[in-house]
């Protein structure tokens, strides 16, 4: 989610606590829209990242440094001239606007004490970092906005800085209960939309959360809310405003399918506690959240080529399989031609010259059948013609049976690789998948290129009862887990009839509690094509019952003795171990 006013209020609270009274030691501009300030003082040394990137504006404290260009950009040089060793006097936020204002104190060339303001606006494509003097006149900005670009406000040296009022929104921190109620009743729209369009700094995510807290359906029409419901919602909004004033925040990231989907500076109660991670500092949360999102985005980008190769091969094999099945169905009449030939050999002496058909008793089922004849041929020649057709279709059937089985196996193999791509979370997880595609002939190895080093490991979990559970990320890891890592009495889990990971529970020669089987089943369901479903059938058996047929594709196994369970694919609460 994008920064909202409540999140920024949390950032300002942290920055006030950590930075006020300290001095700016270094100023760098690693990217064209980004500043990295190193600050020293009673807090020790800390870095503050300020980004006005249109797609991802950011502001948080970090311990990580970034490489800067050899020649500093003009804006960076200007800040160094004015703000090197400047003291941070205050950090403020106007209302719940997505704006942070740093008041800075420094000595000019004559040794006189001066005040300057560094302002960061975190407003999506309108984000900017603006440097102003004590009279609120713009000295410079990281992005220049002329009147040709914006008719609302120019951001250029020499212009006066002001906050543009482009939307008629109320300032929640300044509203009375009556004013909050009036804003909600004045908007003819769903109540959650009335909240985020009616008040500054509230995002749709927070608006939904406030509706949940008030016990109101977010899609109800705002003007039609009953008096009691409206009163509850007003009280919830008042409570939020009071928490912001008192700087009472709850920094949490919430997950779906083990991936971070939302974060907020207030508790998102619509998600279970097990689906969230709580942070002490907002900067820690932001750095973690965007690092995780960046990893997921990067892995999707890196896997695009592999996905395209797999999908293209899969579509080609599916078309081939459908054609082979159709051709195989056409060979089903071969036995009929064999019977025709045999009956003609048996009763052919009764056929008159030039006859176009012959009726005969089929001694296989005691039914009379009519056999079409070529009137230009004798009965023996017609019999030979049918036997030739039979032999041709028989050969076709035998060849197609083998080809169809091989194509079906190839489809299953490619589908399993597609599932492995969905499971991959890190770039190193793609190495083995790419190697499998190379060995299967879908990718050509370049020149004398060697196999890439494999650093990816299976997922490792610990059950509630302390048993170690391992989950393969791809076919190679599945085989290694099942046939090299697991011992005979360890337990093996897999989705029934669905592509997914092999799951191994190390039994240590002990009898496992029922809860371990349930948790391992959930992991097998989650790391499969059935992820997200509430009822997934899982087969499980001891490893000694699992066999690999000779010459079969990687990850393919057979088993004839097994148990089954039906479980959901939610693995919330199962502890993952980082090896």
Question: Briefly, what is this?
Answer:
The two termini are 30 Å apart. The model has no long low-confidence stretch (mean pLDDT 89).
Oligomerization status of the protein chains: single chain
Q: List low-confidence stretches.
A: none
Strand content: 15-25%
Judged by helices, strands and strand pairing, the structural class is: alpha+beta
Count of runs of 4 or more consecutive helical residues = 13
Strand order of the largest sheet: 20-19-17-18-16-15-21
How much helix is in the residues?
Answer: 25-40%
Q: Can you count the beta strands?
A: 21
Terminal CA distance: 30 Å
Please give the largest β-sheet: 7 strands, antiparallel
Instruction: Estimate the mean pLDDT confidence.
Output: 89
Shape: elongated
Rg value: 36 Å
What does this structure look like?
This protein is of the alpha+beta class and 579 residues long. The protein has 13 helices and 21 strands. The chain has helices spanning 5-19, 74-83, 177-186, 191-198, 204-213, 227-245, 282-302, 304-330, 334-347, 379-423, 429-439, 475-485, 514-526, and strands spanning 23-28, 34-41, 44-51, 58-62, 87-92, 99-107, 113-121, 128-133, 138-141, 251-256, 259-264, 276-279, 357-362, 367-372, 459-462, 468-471, 491-495, 503-505, 536-542, 563-567, 575-577. The strands form five sheets. The chain has a seven-stranded antiparallel sheet with strand order 20-19-17-18-16-15-21, with helices on both faces. A hairpin with a 5-residue loop joins strand 15 and strand 16 (468-471). It starts with a helix and ends with a strand.
């Amino acid at each position: 989610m994008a920064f909202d006013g409540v999140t920024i209020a949390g950032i300002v609270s942290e920055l006030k606590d950590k930075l006020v009274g300290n001095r700016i030691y270094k100023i760098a501009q690693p990217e064209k829209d980004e500043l990295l300030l190193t600050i020293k003082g009673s807090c020790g040394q800390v870095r503050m990242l300020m980004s006005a990137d249109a797609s991802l504006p950011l502001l948080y404290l970090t311990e990580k440094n970034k490489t800067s260009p050899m020649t500093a950009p003009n804006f960076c040089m200007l800040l160094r001239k004015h703000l090197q060793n400047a003291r941070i006097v205050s950090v403020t936020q106007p209302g719940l606007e997505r704006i942070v204002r740093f008041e800075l104190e420094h000595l000019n060339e004559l040794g006189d004490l001066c005040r300057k303001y560094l302002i960061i606006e975190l407003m999506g494509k309108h984000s900017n970092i603006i440097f102003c003097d004590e009279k609120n006149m713009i000295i410079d900005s990281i992005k220049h906005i002329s009147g040709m670009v914006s008719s609302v406000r120019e951001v250029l040296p020499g212009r006066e800085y002001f906050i543009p009022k482009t939307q008629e929104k109320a300032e929640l921190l300044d509203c009375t209960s009556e004013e909050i109620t009036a804003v909600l009743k004045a908007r003819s729209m769903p109540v959650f939309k009335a909240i985020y369009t009616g008040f500054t700094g509230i995002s749709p995510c927070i608006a939904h959360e406030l509706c949940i807290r008030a016990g109101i359906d977010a899609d109800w029409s705002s003007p039609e809310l009953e008096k009691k419901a409206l009163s509850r919602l007003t009280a919830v909004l008042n409570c939020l405003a009071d928490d912001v004033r008192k700087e009472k925040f709850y920094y949490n990231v919430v997950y779906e399918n083990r991936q971070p989907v939302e974060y907020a500076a207030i508790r998102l109660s619509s998600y279970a506690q097990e689906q969230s991670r709580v942070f002490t500092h907002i900067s820690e949360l932001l750095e973690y959240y965007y690092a995780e999102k960046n990893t997921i985005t990067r892995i999707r980008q890196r896997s695009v080529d592999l996905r395209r190769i797999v999908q293209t091969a899969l579509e080609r094999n599916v078309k081939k399989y459908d054609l082979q099945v159709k051709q195989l169905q056409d060979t089903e009449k071969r036995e009929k031609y064999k019977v025709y030939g045999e009956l003609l050999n048996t009763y052919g002496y009764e056929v008159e010259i030039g006859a176009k058909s012959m009726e005969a008793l089929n001694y296989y089922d005691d039914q009379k059948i009519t056999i079409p004849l070529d009137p230009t041929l004798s009965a023996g020649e017609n019999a030979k013609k049918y036997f030739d057709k039979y032999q041709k279709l028989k050969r076709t059937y035998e060849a197609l049976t083998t080809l169809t089985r091989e194509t079906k196996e190839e489809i299953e193999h490619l589908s399993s690789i597609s599932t492995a791509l969905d499971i991959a979370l890190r770039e190193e997880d793609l190495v083995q998948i790419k190697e499998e595609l190379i060995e299967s002939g879908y990718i050509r190895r370049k020149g004398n290129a060697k196999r890439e080093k494999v650093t990816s490991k299976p997922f490792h979990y610990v059950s509630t009862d302390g048993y170690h559970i391992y989950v393969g990320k791809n076919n190679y890891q599945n085989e290694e887990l099942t046939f090299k890592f697991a011992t005979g009495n360890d337990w093996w889990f897999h989705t029934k009839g669905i592509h997914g990971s092999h799951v191994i529970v190390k039994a240590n020669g002990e009898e496992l509690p029922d809860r371990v089987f349930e948790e391992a089943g959930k992991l097998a369901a989650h790391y499969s094509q059935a992820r997200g479903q509430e009822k997934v059938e899982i087969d499980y058996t001891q490893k000694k019952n699992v066999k690999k047929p000779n010459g079969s594709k990687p990850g393919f196994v057979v088993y004839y003795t097994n148990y089954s369970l039906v479980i959901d694919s939610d693995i919330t609460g199962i502890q993952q171990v980082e090896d």
